[in-house]
């Protein structure tokens, strides 16, 4: 088992790495020997790789089925402690006053009234013990409970033919998913972890949990949900992670 | 002797083309795979940066999946051609243990003769083995990429965590094959020419192929 990424040094390191994105990546002798061509022009190469990534996204969407469920586990399989993970360290976690917190709802919906935490808890709740898989390769099993996102979308009169559901977070994270995944029965608005209210480290007061997607597509600290046809991208997706990020 | 008529060619154009596409994409997949591994190592070491491809995890993933499509395409063309075109039946029929022992012992004493266009028992075993490993590599890769959508495949390899380790272990076998393969090419450089130009068989070998 890989030790959870709790270090504060890692995000810093990542920021530097990101700046290097594909620049310098081809300093690698392996490939320059192979192609024998000038390795200075990396922007065209990066564009080409991203075009392929969009093709991969389409293949992922084609592979996805709303009927196929992620494997669930017994309580004994839960990873303790469940690792904290964000683009910053544990000591930088932001919190809000849960009583005054509201979920903004906008875009292609019938009712834009903001939702309180109590409103969300009034929807029918369900619980799941599923494997969270990080794009880095490690995984951990946890238990989340909350209302299915599909019930919420029906409730606010969302246009279910819209292409994307976008999530904005008060830690300045953002991501977006396809409507098919938004309507998947295991995609839930998690308000509890392990039977108790979601703690700050795991995204209090609201996290969107979907075991059919990688960790970076499971946003925490939600402040707004937007139904849209305009491609919203995402924090990591804009830097190179594939947008679909499906498991 | 007439120049490279069909029967005299060491490697068909399909084999040569798919070999080089597979070789390039395999190197890309190994280099980017090492970078992906470094993001969350399974063993107490990481790969040196110079040996990796992609610069960071996101870049490595872009490379890994781009190379995956190229390798899959080349692999499918090669397999279909190998089965339907007779390349597997003709050149890669798995040899009996006696032939393997004979050729292996002469190989270890550096006395195994090489005839371009003819695979000896050790080669047959090695090529058939690495093809099997490559297929398993693709299947374990698919199962850790899509553990939900291809849940049955992931289950077959023992679940996500084990499949991930099997994927890594298979990579070491492929790298091991590459080392042996390149060493043998260095010993018999004419094989490299054959894989690039198609080359031509020696008269004796050509006769045997016609027989």
TrEMBL record, chain A:
Q: State the source organism's domain of life.
A: Bacteria
The family database entries (Pfam families) matched by this protein are listed as:
Oxidored_molyb
In this chain the Oxidoreductase molybdopterin-binding domain maps to: 93-236
Q: PANTHER family, alphabetically? A: BLL0505 PROTEIN (PTHR43032:SF2), PROTEIN-METHIONINE-SULFOXIDE REDUCTASE (PTHR43032)
Q: Output this protein's name.
A: Molybdopterin-dependent oxidoreductase
* Origin organism lineage: Bacteria, Pseudomonadati, Pseudomonadota, Alphaproteobacteria, Acetobacterales
Automatic annotation (TrEMBL), chain B:
Principal location: membrane
Return the protein name.
Cytochrome b/b6 domain-containing protein
Q: Which domain of life is it from?
A: Bacteria
Give the Cytochrome b561 bacterial/Ni-hydrogenase domain ranges: 10-198
Give the membrane topology, semicolon-separated if more than one. Multi-pass membrane protein
Q: Where are the transmembrane segments?
A: 20-37, 57-80, 125-145, 165-193
**SUPFAM superfamilies the record matches:** Transmembrane di-heme cytochromes (SSF81342)
Key word Ligase present? no
Q: Where in the cell is it found?
A: Cell membrane
